[in-house]
Amino acid sequence: MDAGDLARRAAPLAIATAGVAALLHSVRARPEPLPPDASVPKIEAGPTTKTIHGVSTRRPTAKGRVRSGLSDAFTTPFSFIQVRVTFTGRELTRVETVEMTGTGARTQAINERAEPRLRAEALRAGNADVDVVTGATYTSQSYRKALQSAIDKARHG
Amino acid sequence: MADAAVAGGLHRVETVMGIPVGVDVRDDGVDPAALDRVFAHLRDADDAFSPYRAASDVSRLDAGTLAPAGTRPDVRAVLARCERLRRTTGGWFDVRATGRLDPSGYVKGWAVDGAVAILRAAGARNLCVHAGGDVRVLGERAPGLRWRIGVQHPGERDRLAAVLHAPREGLAVATSGAYERGAHIVDPHTGRRPGGVLSVTVAGPELGTADAYATAAFAMGTDGPAWTAALGPYAALTILAPGRMLSTPGMDALRAV
After folding, report:
1. Most A CBs within 10 Å, among B14, B179, B244, to test the A interface
2. ipTM over 0.90
3. What b/e string do you get for A42-56 counting C-beta neighbours within 10 Å, with b at 16 or more?
């Protein structure tokens, strides 16, 4: 089972964590029966928290001024998310999940699977050969909001 | 949030109506205060039209605690426009489809149209405003270069289904689909979700209308593409399944480089 499979199976649970809501949408378009997934832990009694950190980078295609921006902190009922981005010229060359903290084992399991995927998507989308994307309405997505906040600050800096 | 200068232009992203709204002005010399007016306008629209705010004109109208005659002129104008759209879409765009008054399907685009008018009045001629997947562009992204609008692939989050090249005179693009917010569109006739279609993208002169047409065509399901063939200055792209798209001639022209 690759990371994508894991992410797809975990996705219905992501409703509970708005921070990874983006993952859910790719699943809705490909409905499939969900097998019992032993790898998703049961919710534990008592709150526990776990912090995820991750970095994706991309080689710039041209030299340019390097600027970074740290997002505001975004919270959901289950998670805390903060992102840092780096531009080289006008290219998005680095996305760092500074902190994605989830409370409860189930949230942590979902976050662990979603975070690398969201980060990689952000890096790719930031360099798509278009200026803007039209799509069905976004729900409030904390990761996306954090990303935009970071991009805004990098451009300002 | 802070304004950011991008190659002499203006750029700002803020969350309004629960969605990220971005303004990107590429002209030099536009007063940054215009951005304040844009976001004040968007928040004001949310205050008046949000069905999630108990104090909004729309919520009070729906609850019967506010008479239609007592609403703001812009609320009356928007609801009158929604009623005309209900008729021109054969009832498929209906602000009461869910059983309560919810003109959000028109208001988001209408509010962005108003934002563009504010920016034009401030001297901007080359700009892009996007609000949760709805897009309006004007002019060019750089001298001689057209704005490029990607249409989200409904299955793969990081892929595009098509790219539209906006004419200099501008373009409004709206998408309705099943892949983002789930069942937020229902068939006004049955109260159920439409079937057979993943998303409908409509492009034309005005965003509020494009949004309403996209909502209507999506609700029609597989009957939508035929209906979109006769929308005058509005072009449409219907995605039936990954890799299966139906495009009107106007949309084909926008997709050509």
Report:
1. B179
2. no
3. eeeeeeeeeebeeeb
